[in-house]
Amino acid sequence: MGQHWKKIWVGSAGNMVEWFDWFVYAVFATYFADAFFPKGNDTANLMKTAGIFAVGFFMRPVGGWLLGRVGDRRGRKAALTLTVTLMSASAVLIAAAPTYAVAGYGGVAVLLVARLLQGLSVGGEYAASATYLTEASAPGRRGFASSFQYVSMTAGQILGLGLQIVLQHTLTNAQLHAWGWRIPFAVGAVGAAVVFYLRRNMLETEAYEESGTAADDRGTIRALLQHKREALLVVALTMGGTVAYYTYTTYLTNYLSHSAGMPKPTASLVSFFALIVFACLQPLAGALSDRIGRRPLLITFAVGATFLTVPIMTWLRHAGSFWPALGLSVLGLAIVTGYTSINACVKAELFPTGIRALGVALPYALATALFGGTAEYVALWFKNAGIESGYYWYVAGCAAVSLVVYLTMRETRDIDLKQVGREPAGEAEPDRVPAS
Fold it and tell me: What per-residue confidence (pLDDT) applies to 31?
């Protein structure tokens, strides 16, 4: 048990820093959007900054392919070390990027390169950490152990919001817009350097070390094409979950500030405390899935997101004060927990060891690029067009598509990770282990 927890801790700590760097771009965008573009319409500048945020998502499939291949051919440890190196470089670039007043659109170019590097890094980080945490856990505890991926992701967001709250109370609004927004990226670069050291000394998973997959087949597109059904299932699994997740996390602060009319510090506090509750829910839901299965949680999420997104987002817009906004935000995140707490292990459970990292990485990255990465931009597009409520229906529709998939997919809880894919195609299902 001690070795399992050590692997979970190291994998989660790195994931936390990765997502801190990724998330602070979104929560501090409202402060640095005008720094890189000519003065003008605030919403338009925020849309341009959100567009660059979305570009990072479109590099995620490339990162998913590249780092997924590294994870399957060189090991989970090698992939996780490389992801944090790329993230550190991107954080340094953003922290030092020149503004429009200094370098014109040269600052935008630096920002764009940094987001491309972040996209490469996160594209591989999700799958590498999902695979690592799933393989490192004891049989019958995979749901609980892999839930720490979103605990660590959320912890990164909480740290980012916490730092924003501290800066909002220690710096003036003018200082935050002028130079204070650079601080979180400098902090992220330092954190990434610490994680690089931790990951160089992390332990490889037993499932990877004992894998009998031929070296030439590890992490190749050819091998992935032998599992097309599972790859398409990952895309469908991700569609509704990633849109809902980014709506209630990344976009929430800007939504409360720009649409609900809340002061920025109040909006940040709502997101901060809602995310703390969300993080605490992850291991509870993960452990529940180890007892009752993955499908019941996924179905609960999809039903809730399909039928409750429109009323929750509508009520949030008219919440008016801290407590109603917090209650509605927690409700939305509680619904999303049915997806976030177990999606990592569900996807990893679909693939054999030799193709697991790439099998999770590439289709997941494609789905998040199409749906998660564009969520904030789509939301702002609807707002700019004067039909903001259209975005609520968009989120509900994506969840409805995923609901159909959850209702028809097989249960993966009891699959033996070391046996997945070893039986001849079309014959018996993978050997199973008792749930505990």
Answer: 85
Task: Look up residue 300 and give its two tokens.
Answer: 């609960």
Check: CB of residue 196 under 8 Å from CB of residue 83.
no
Amino acid making up residue 105 = Y
Contact between residue 71 and residue 123 where contact means Cβ atoms under 8 Å apart: no
Counting every residue written for the chain, the total comes to 436
Residue 299 has which token pair?
């179905």
| pLDDT at site 104 | 78
Torsion of CA 216, 205, 427, 294, to 10 degrees: -130
Query: Which 3 state secondary structure label does DSSP give 415?
Result: strand
Q: Which two tokens stand for residue 189?
A: 């670069």
Q: For residues 141 and 290, what is the distance between their CA atoms, to the nearest angstrom?
A: 6
For the chain, list residues with pLDDT below 50. Answer: 1, 424-436
Whole-angstrom distance, CA of residue 128 vs CA of residue 142:
15
Contact 253, 23 (CB under 8 A): no
The distance from CA 398 to its chain's CA centroid, rounded to whole angstroms, is 17
Bridge partners, residue 415, by sequence:
432
Delineate the domains of the chain, giving CATH numbers in brackets.
2-205+227-408 (1.20.1250.20)
Model pLDDT for residues 130-151, shown as the tens digit of each residue: 899 898 888 789 999 999 999 9
Q: pLDDT value at position 215?
A: 57
Does this model's pTM top 0.85? My answer is no
pLDDT, position 421: 64
Distance, in Å, from the CA atom of 130 to the CA atom of 149, rounded to the nearest integer, reads 7
Question: CA-CA distance, 376 to 111, in Å (whole number)?
Answer: 18
CB count within 10 Å of CB 47 equals 18
Q: Is residue 294 classed as helix, strand or coil in its secondary structure?
A: coil
Using DSSP's 3-state secondary structure scheme, residue 432 falls into: strand
